[in-house]
Amino acid sequence: MKFSIIMPTYNSEKYVAQAIESVLSQTCGDFELIVVDDGSVDETYNICLRFAENDSRVSVIAAEHGGVSAARNLGLSKIQGKYVLFIDGDDTWGEELLSSVQDTVGEQDNLLVFGMQHDWYLSDDTFQYSHEHLGNSGETVALQTDTDIDALISSYNLASPCNKVYRADIIAKNKVRFCEKCVYLEDLKFNLDYLLYGQNIKLLKRDLYRYRLFFDKKQMYKRQFKGLFENADELYRSCAALSESKGWAFPMGSIFLPLLTRAYAIECLCQVYERDKRTQKDVVSSLNKNKRYAQLLRYANGKLYWLLRVCRAFRLWKIQLRMLKRRYDK
How far apart are CA 37 and CA 308, in angstroms? Predict the structure, then answer.
């Protein structure tokens, strides 16, 4: 079998049928679709089960609610294909995604990246507009982690696993898994960990994946972090490990510096959301005591970071929090 496709689902009854149908309608049929239902309390599981009863390529696993990372990891434990892809239960594929991938990926390619069309909706499912990602020229470009990491992060969406094709043998041999205690940028951490072992990257400039997005600024703050700055610390470790393996300076002069400072800031803002001032002060104090965050601030350049260093030194937590909100609360 060539392709193993993992679809985590959670309360996606409005969208999951369309997501599964987009996979089953592929012009290339050499695949298995592993749906991992993450403890849905609506009709999602039953909808998925009906597809499995009618198509042997579909299997459905009922799991206790443990988050998207746990669901993806469970799917990874069941794969039989040579290549691994991911699709979320509220997104869709273009019908030529797998055939385009099959025509593009080579034996020496460790990772294939393709484009994602971003479809924006209001909270009532009213469609607003689509945003092109890489276009549809069909051009292929060879990338290298050493020289193209900046472009991978800033232009080609390194974070998402849904616009990538992974080699199953690399994942299995090196036990690459999603971090189950992370709820923010856990997919980026997975990709950074994967890049420790997969160096040859190919880019396909076709928007083959349709990514559903909603205009909901408060959605980010609903994330339930499992410990103060454990999530950002995990991401820091992955950035540091990849940098060390490549001989890159870290964190000074690193492409990861702004990414990581943002990760700590976002986690701080999520932790203080809807909390009283006393608890907010404790969260900011915990951030300032974090040695990894302090190291990042030491090397970061710019007026914002200079002011954050001053606030940290003089314990001006209210000003510090306002600055973080002004910069990252968007």
Answer: 42
Tell me the mean pLDDT in the region 51-55: 98
Top-confidence range, 2-16, 142-156, 315-329: 2-16
CA distance 303 to 283: 23
Say whether the peptide bond before residue 251 is cis (omega within 30 degrees of 0): yes
pLDDT band (50, 70, 90) for residue 217 = low
- Do 154 and 181 have their domain in common? yes
Q: How far is Cα 257 from Cα 296, in angstroms, rounded to an integer?
A: 7
Claim to verify: residue 147 and residue 134 sit in the same structural domain: yes
In this structure, are residues 95 and 208 in contact, taking their beta carbons and an 8 Å threshold? Answer: no
Three-state secondary-structure class, residue 273: coil
| Six token digits for residue 82 | 């040579």
Q: Which domain does 179 fall in, by range?
A: 3-214
pLDDT at 330: 64
Pick from 96, 88, 92: which is nearest to 18 by CA? 92
When mean pLDDT is compared across 62-66, 102-106, 246-250, the lowest value belongs to: 246-250
The pair of three-digit structure tokens given for residue 259, joined into one six-digit string: 């990414």
Mean pLDDT (whole number) for 144-148: 81
Tell whether 205 and 225 lie within a shared domain: no
Residue that is last in its domain, among 214, 238, 254: 214
Mean pLDDT in residue range 156-185: 95
- Beta strands 136-144 and 200-214, pairing class: antiparallel
Helices (H), ranges, the chain:
16-24, 44-54, 68-76, 97-104, 145-154, 168-174, 186-195, 230-246, 256-272, 277-289, 291-299, 303-314, 317-328
In the DSSP assignment, the letter for residue 13 is T
End residue of a domain, out of 180, 214, 248: 214
148 or 268, which is more confident = 268
Asked if 181 contacts 226 with a C-beta cutoff of 8 angstroms, the reply is yes
- What's the structural domain count of the chain? 2
